[in-house]
Each structure stands twice: as C-alpha cells, then as structure tokens.
Q: What sequence folds into this?
C-alpha cells in the first residue's frame, strides 16, 4: 500500500459521508417545502406555485404499478381465460404492467388486477424554474 494515497482515501471517505448527510437534508427540506406549498396530500401529477413574477416552484409526483409475483401466479389462469393476458410457451413470461391498458379496464377487472398489483409512489421532485411566457396569438 502506498501511504501517500492514504490522505486521498480519507478525504474521499469524509466527503462521501458528508454527501450522505446533505442528501438526507435535501430530502427532508424537499418534503417540508412540498407540504408547505402544496399540502400534505402528495398526489400524482405536476403542480406549480408562483414564487415571484418570474419564478415558480414546480412539484412533480410519479407513481408506478408493479406485479406481485405470488398474487399473479394465483390469478394467472383466470386472467388468461378472460383474454386479459397472453401466455407464451417458449419465452418465460415476465409480468409487466401496461398502465395505459390498466386505465381502460372495467371496474370489476381493476378489482381483480389490484389484487396482483403493488402501487408505489415515486420520490417527488421539486424545482424552481422561470415562468414560461404565454404566447399571444
């Protein structure tokens, strides 16, 4: 081991720990800012709040739906019989959600699929950006 490199490794480790602390602070402040400007109910979509005549705070929240493998196996035959999923014989089926198709299901089918799906909210994003000027016709 080259002792001349030890200070470099120590400095990297110190900065890495600092980075972790700063990331946690940013996450905490982001949550507090979202709650202060947009309320506690963090819904999916994008919302904007004017900060000044030229700047706005933009909040974005995404959500994902993933398949619970065990629940899918339990309901797979029934879903196939309804023509809601395909079965391939050569290629291994990897369940993946088509959110677009899910939106068009009947309420009864949504209930069935919701037993198989896990709905997860993504980490919200928050940014400050210039207000876009509206084009006049």
A:
């Amino acid at each position: 081991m080259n002792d001349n490199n030890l200070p470099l490794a120590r400095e990297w480790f110190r900065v890495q720990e600092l980075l972790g602390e700063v990331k946690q602070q940013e996450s905490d402040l982001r949550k507090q800012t979202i709650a202060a400007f947009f309320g506690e109910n963090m819904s999916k979509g994008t919302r904007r709040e004017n900060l000044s005549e030229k700047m706005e705070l933009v909040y974005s929240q995404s959500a994902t739906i993933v398949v619970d493998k065990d629940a899918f196996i339990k309901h797979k035959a029934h879903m196939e019989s309804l023509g809601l999923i395909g079965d391939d014989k050569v290629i291994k089926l990897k369940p993946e959600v088509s959110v677009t198709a899910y939106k068009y299901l009947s309420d009864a089918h949504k209930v069935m699929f919701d037993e198989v799906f896990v709905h997860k909210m993504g980490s919200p994003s928050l940014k400050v950006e210039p207000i876009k000027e509206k084009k006049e016709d």
